Amino acid sequence: MRRPEDVPQAFQTAWNSHDMASLGALFHDDATFVNRFGHYVRGVDAIVALHAPIHSTIYSDSTLENELIDVTAIDDDAAVTHFWSRLTAGAAHPAGPHAVDTLILAVLTRQSGEWRIKALENVTLTDPRTGETVLRQRPA
After folding, report:
1. Which residues pair with 114 in a beta bridge?
2. Which of 128, 125, 122, 120 is closest to 138 using CA atoms?
3. Choosing a second label site near 87 at 20 to 30 A (CA), which of 38, 62, 63, 118?
């Protein structure tokens, strides 16, 4: 990635192609990842291993649509990004077609001119009163 602002589109493109090599290339070798269920892994190999089985089964026909919220520079070579992500699962998912909205926080660092993800955390939007997942209200 050339800029931290590129992360939502790059993540979306890798997910939608279901290409685990492309997904792994977004992360530093020692990156951490927390999925929307709170599963924590460290290292790009573990990140790919977490995603490969679901991309060949329940999310094989899924798509992501990401939207950048903000980028906060920490210094010239580090930034924090937040972006919305809507996962649309298809018929391959046991629950059938449905959508899930999450908020992603990604810390990126630049090494040798390339920005990559150092840490990423994904949080599912839920109603705090019921625990039910909710879709965010998009601006009109």
Report:
1. 111
2. 125
3. 118
